[in-house]
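pinging the channel bc i need a second pair of eyes. not urgent but kinda urgent?? the chain im working w is below, pasted from the shared doc
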Amino acid sequence: MSERANSWYYESGGQVFGPFTSKEFQEIFSSQQVPPEARVFYFNGEQRIYVDQRTLAMKMQRARTVSTRLPPKPAVAPPLPSRSVPSSNPPPAAVTPIASPANSAALQQPLVAQVIYSTPVPRQVPHRKQRQAWWWIGGIALFVIVVGGFLGGIVIMAMRSANLASSTGSSQVNDQQPAPQVLGAGQNRNPPTRDDETSHPAPRQPPAEPMPPQPQNAPATHSEPVAAQSVTPPAGRTSREEPSGPQPWLETVQSACVVIIAQDFSGNGSLGSGFFVDSSHPWPIVVTNYHVVEGASQIVVKLRSGEMYPVLRGAIFPRCDLAFLAVETLAKPPATLSLRPDFPKLTETVYAYGAPQGLEATITRGIVSSIRRTSEIEFLSEKYDEIPWIQTDAAVNPGNSGGPLVDTAGLVVGVTTLKRGQSENLNFAVSAVEVASRLKSARVSNLSAQGPIAKGHATNGGPEANPWAPTVVYWLALKAAAEAASSDEKQVGAIINNPMASPLQKLLVLQAWADSLAGAAAMVINLPTENVDAGAMVAGQSLAAFFAEYSKTIRQTLAVLGESPNPQIAQARIGQILGDFAAKAVVIAGILEAARADLSQRSGLPFPPIIE
């Protein structure tokens, strides 16, 4: 049978049902008499145009909301006999108009017929499903955040554990410092902990016009910073901005900074920092803190080159924690630093130099946090005179005491003195203004600390003041080298025994230890030996050979293990190295102890043990 033009049909079960007018098919389709799997098409007289049932249903639904009622439901047309309808054109996957809607007869058909000329409307996602989708997305995002935070916490804990192990040997600064017992210093109920020097040299610049010293006993009725009283800098220094690139004054500061080795009568020693300062005195003058040399019987100044010079004379000011040491056996200092005559500005960049924990030529950077007087700092008010202090957040540690705090021009703005224990970045330095005032009035004399060197009868401070002075200086240098090696051994052992340290980290630590031992051996070998007792020199040669031998042993072991060693083999070999070192350290300690006893007996001086 031929198909009637402008009629609707549907195929189902191999049969073709129709023809239907547009209105008839609309009622049949709305009453769901068309099977869902049926293929619906519209015959326009030339070709079949297949229509998607879903699109057709949406159009009819929309039409019902805006059109009038359809006529009563007609009787269902009888199905046509089953036959295959030739299809010259394959059914299209999507509805395609065969002519322009403007000139087509379809525009005269009811809305149902016009479906074939409409662009399919995309299916809208129900609002409820949208909410469900967003809930799923939010849940997945929350899960990712929680898991990421958990894993990040594990990584941070692992890194902190490794850092803690690597800093096992670090000394903590106490919140109290001993009350001074010299020149009637008052007892301090809450003494602060003193910092030790950090040294990084600052270049020397010509001093500006000197400023009149600030009154030391000025009343402090308010907490306004002293910086408000600062004087305008000289014309030659127009900018305090932080420079970029290499600092031209760095070499000067490094050469001017020194390490101070002090030892009391009982053999207890300490390390501090200091620096050569421009002065009118006939001898090179080293500025440091009084607490660095307090109670010392022997004082030695070590230059950057490694040369050591004993100190017998100087001037001390316990109430402002300053000491000026005259290095009379040194003809000319390698470099000197100038004192800045005015106070630095708040937030100005400063650098702290010194030897924290014995690490020479260490530099840290910070800013000027405040400028205060003693009366404004409660834990200092009973111990010190009314003097100006530079408060800074530049990191300082034991060993920085006495080192310079310099500005970006290399001028000294303060002498690093102390840090407040159990506090973060609360560090103080005696102002350079105060240092200049005390230095101008200082009178060099024999130091009042008890001890054989300090009690020498000679006034020129040369070796003839005490014939054992060069030997004492040499012995103190040996003790400092041995203590540094012992501290390194403890830190290496802590990292080696840390289960979280990787084999590569352990090998790197061993390499650093080998370099440290080699450096200690070279330092001992290059110590000045003029007028040093032969027994002390033999002890020094034994100590240097011990350091050099183990440095070589460690390097040979590292070469055998390679860069990617077997963890079990590496751990066993490293443990063997540490065990051998400890065993032979006992042997070398016996040799050094015998030398110490002999020297003490012949000189009458209490030479301290080198290895305890």
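so Residues 467-603 form one domain. and Residues 316 and 323 are 4 Å apart (CA to CA). — does that match what u expected or am i reading it wrong
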